[in-house]
Amino acid sequence: PASDAAAQYNPEPPPPRSHFSNIEANESEEVRQFRRLFTQLAGDDMEVSATELMNIMNKVVTRHPDLKTDGFGIDTCRSMVAVMDSDTTGKLGFEEFKYLWNNIKKWQCIYKQYDADRSGTIGSRELPGAFEAAGFHLNQQLYAMIVRRYSDESGNMDFDNFISCLVRLDAMFRKWLGHWQISQPWLSSFRCLQIFGSRWQRADPCDSEGGEKEPWCVLRKSFQQARNCARRSQRQL
């Protein structure tokens, strides 16, 4: 169930909600080097816009011909910026971009590892293993929805869709964990999520025009139901 992912997902600390313009004394040399790179990429405003992110990502994939991709489009990059933009500036500051960049590097390695047939894509059978390696343990219904949303007609997911999907998943689970810190009083929230993680209502706002359910709406609905259940449980303590 979705609760397995929420309970087992252990991300790094989220990006701070304020940008830092000065290099802190305790930064490692690696971080200093990354800050210098960020300065070159971000431009005068010291923030990365969706267009700048698109250019950066497409330069990266051109260096990796083994990654099958149509390239990162502006809509994909706008979505990535939107879910990573913790201070609602519409752009990514240093900490936000560093967090995203480190994830992309990690997910790129996972993508190559689970591209077992070296086709440049990840097939529907390879997908659960790749997502679990990234820290997400989803149920089969969610995997099926994600494949329909992000894969081609043969069930193969290319690199840009893989990254876009994981950025969205990371943001959703990070938001969940931010609202519901794992502690003894709130363990009930995860039990509730186990209950609701596989109970999807038939006709609900998650249904798209074609009758398919959007995976993000379904996952968000599951979280909301679990939250309400946990609140009721706490009142009974």
From TrEMBL:
Location(s), subcellular:
Cell membrane; Cytoplasm
For the keyword Transcription, the answer is no
Alphabetized UniProt keyword annotations: Calcium, Cell membrane, Cytoplasm, Membrane, Metal-binding, Repeat
Residue ranges constituting the EF-hand domain according to the UniProt record: 102-137
Q: Does the keyword Metal-binding apply?
A: yes
Q: Where is this region: Disordered?
A: 1-21
Question: Which GO molecular-function terms appear in the entry?
Answer: calcium ion binding
The record's GO CC annotations read: calpain complex; plasma membrane
Q: Which InterPro entries match?
A: EF-hand-dom_pair (IPR011992), EF_Hand_1_Ca_BS (IPR018247), EF_hand_dom (IPR002048)
Which Gene3D superfamilies does the annotation name? EF-hand (1.10.238.10)
Question: Which PANTHER family does the protein's record reference?
Answer: CALPAIN SMALL SUBUNIT 1-RELATED, CALPAIN, SMALL SUBUNIT 1 A-RELATED
Q: What protein name is recorded for this chain?
A: Calpain small subunit 1
What organism is listed for this UniProt entry?
Naja naja
